[in-house]
Amino acid sequence: MRPRGLLVALVLLAALGGALYYSNKQKAAEAAKPPADTPPKILALAEGDVTKVVLKKGAYETDLQKIGDKWQITAPMPYAADQTAASQLVASAANVSSDRVVEDKASNVSAYGLNAPILEVDVTGKGGKTSKLKIGDDTPTNSGSYAMLEGDPRVFTVASYVKTGLDKSVNDLRDKRLLTFDQDKLSRVELIAKKQDIEFGRDKDQWQIVKPKPLRADSLQIEEMLRKLKDAKMDLALSADDAKKAAATFASGTPVATVKLTDPSGTQEIEIRKVKDDYYAKSSIVPGVFKVTPELGTGVDKAMDDFRNKKLFDFGFNDPNKVEMHVNGKTYSFQKGGDDWFSNGKKLDSVSLQSLIDKLRDLSASKFVDTGTLGTPAIDITVVSNNGKLTEKLLIAKQGSDYVAQRANEPALYALDAKPVDDISQAASDVKPAPPAKK
């Protein structure tokens, strides 16, 4: 009897386990289903599958098409598209949610303004299939609009933000930049301003002045000018009359600067002129003349010296590996070992040594000297950095009450005020041995 009872118990247990498994599975399936009152999606396409979006509004049509990996406006005229604005439109068109279903089988769509819709959005996706979304009148509460999908008898309401996300004009989607260069890939920039023709060349991330003669450049100043050029935008809301006035104003304006920028795609050019306190620009890549900001006008209205590097040393924020100085007959030699500094094998006080490095790092010219010679140096400083890959030598000579300096193997002369030079000499003499280690 016992084996038989045990067998019965096992059968009952298996049955209960199966029932419990089936029950849990059913609950999971029910939980995965959307609530019965959840309004259905009108469109649910993968954004990556969308190849074309056509917006029809009355007699106007705007076509946005993917060519290669870029969106382009192909109608009403070929225009470059703002890739961010285009992607946002595609995202809105690919996934359209309804607020509710008004009618399952509408017999009179004209009651909702859908026989002649305010806006039609044609979305072409995978396999060339096109879905046509029609948006009609606003709802009585003005909180949304009526909508339907061609081939689907249902009439929906959609939220106002859905219509706003789709109702775009060609000007909303156009690339409004006056210049489209890739700032990270620029190899050459030419600036004609202040009666000077200046050319900048880039070696990796470092800009140099190459014309009218090779000189060290302040890369931050050049990058700031490029940022302002990159931010220059067209005003597409100009009427035809305003556009003609802008062109006439530009023609009579005073030339401020012409900038030519070369990246792997070619060379782009912009010309900027000034009339009273206003600036106007004409670009080589878009037709027309446009008013631009004073920030751009003053940003390119610069002379060569505005872009020259006034810093005497290039080691920047990296601490050097070695500093050697000869100051009025005294010699100082400091070498770094690990995290510590040494002189003649003796460990140095890090605070006093860091003060000297900071003053060398900050040493800047008060102005540039165009003529003359250095004279007899009273101070020479050699700084080795970048693990021995960069060696910079500076010669400093007294000139009146101040100083003039020259970097080794460079023709340029730099005027230096007396105080920073005297402070460096004092800082070198103030470097002291490290305090004895505590027992």
Main structural class: alpha+beta
- Principal-axis shape equals elongated
Strand percentage, roughly?
35-45%
Spans of at least 5 consecutive residues with low confidence: 27-34
Per DSSP E runs of 2 or more residues, the count of β-strands stands at 28
Helicity, as a percent range: 25-40%
Q: What's the mean pLDDT score?
A: 92
- The number of helices is 9
The termini sit apart by 87 Å
How large, in whole angstroms, is the Cα Rg?
36 Å
What's the number of structural domains?
Answer: 3
Strand order of the largest sheet: 5-4-3-2-8-9-10-11-7
Sheet with the most strands, sense and barrel status: 9 strands, antiparallel
Gist?
The protein has helices at residues 2-32, 83-94, 160-166, 170-173, 219-230, 240-252, 294-300, 350-362, 418-430; strands at 41-44, 52-57, 60-67, 70-75, 79-80, 95-97, 100-103, 119-124, 130-138, 144-149, 155-159, 188-193, 196-203, 206-211, 215-216, 254-263, 266-275, 278-283, 289-292, 322-327, 330-337, 340-343, 346-347, 367-369, 379-385, 390-399, 402-407, 413-416. With 439 residues, it is an alpha+beta fold.
